[in-house]
Amino acid sequence: MCPTRRWESGVPELPEVETMRRGIASAVGMRIDQAVLPQGRLRPLSTTPSPGLLAKQLRGCVIEGTERYGKRIALRLSMSAGDRQKEDRWLVIEPRMTGLLLVSVPPTQEHVRLRLSGPTPAITSHELLFWDRRGLGTLRLVNAKGLEEICGEARLGPDALMISCECFRERLCGSARAVKVALLDQHAVAGIGNLYAAEMLFLAGIDPRVRCQQISRPRWKRLHEVMQAVLHEAIELEGSTLSDATYRTALNEPGRYQARHRVYARNGQPCQQCGTVVRRIVQAQRSTFFCPKCQRR
Ligand SMILES: [Zn+2]
Prior knowledge:
With 297 residues, the chain is an alpha+beta fold. The protein has 2 domains: 13-151, MutM-like, N-terminal (N-terminal domain of MutM-like DNA repair proteins, Alpha-Beta Barrel), CATH 3.20.190.10; 165-290, Orthogonal Bundle (Helicase, Ruva Protein, domain 3), CATH 1.10.8. It is 24% helix and 20% strand. β10 (279-283) and β11 form a beta hairpin. Bound molecules: zinc ion (ZN).
C-alpha cells in the first residue's frame, strides 16, 4: 500500500498554486482566439456560466495578468476593443484536488478541461491549459463585483504569505479550536492546507491539538515566522509532488519540496530531529502528522 495516496488532499495549497501562477507568466498578453472546453465522458467540470457560453465569452479577451487569492488563481481579462462590454473580468480557477494549469504538454490529453490559445506578444501562438483528473476544480468568469464576492474579505482571510504577525495572532488566538484545525480555516488566514499546517506546527514545536487560546504570544510569533519561511521555501522548490504524482508545475515537472517534509505522511517513521515515531491522528476528518516529543502542548 502506498501510504500517502490516501492523503493526496494535502495539495495544491498556497505554494503549489503560487507556483502555477508564476509558471503561466508566458501566457500573459495572450489574445484568446480559441477557447475550448472539451466535453468527454468524464465527470463535467463546474463552470459559470455554462461551458458553451464560457467559451464564447472568453474568445477575444486578452489575459492582462494573473493573481492568486489563497488557493485560487484569477486571470485578469480585458475585453477586446470592439466589444461593447469593456469592463474587466476575471476567470477564477480553483484547482481543488487535482487541477493544474499548464503551458506545456499535459500529463494526459483526456483530462484537459480548458484549452485557451492565441498569440502572445513574444510568441506567435501559445496555449494555456487547465487539466483536472478528478474534475473537482471550478472555473468562474466574473466581473469585479463577482470577484469580490468569491475572493474578497468576506470569503478569504489575509494571505498567509502577506499577513503580519500581529494580525495573524489576532485572527486566531481567541479560538477554542485546535490550532491545526484553525490554520485550515480560509476565513482566518488564506492559503494553508493539511500538508503545510503539519510542517509548520512541527517546526514551531507546537502540538497540533493545542487550543489556539492556550498558545502564548511568543509561540504565535514563532509560528508566524516558520509559516512564512516554510511557504517561501516550498515556493522556491515549486511545491510538493506526493507519491500519487498528481501535482505538476506549469511545465509538467514535479515539485521538489516533498524531499523536505519532516512529518507529513511520515507516520510510523522516526522523527528526523529526535527519533521518536511520527504519529498520525485525525482532526476534523483530516489526517494530522506530528512528533509527540518535539511538539509540545
Ligand atoms: Zn521529534
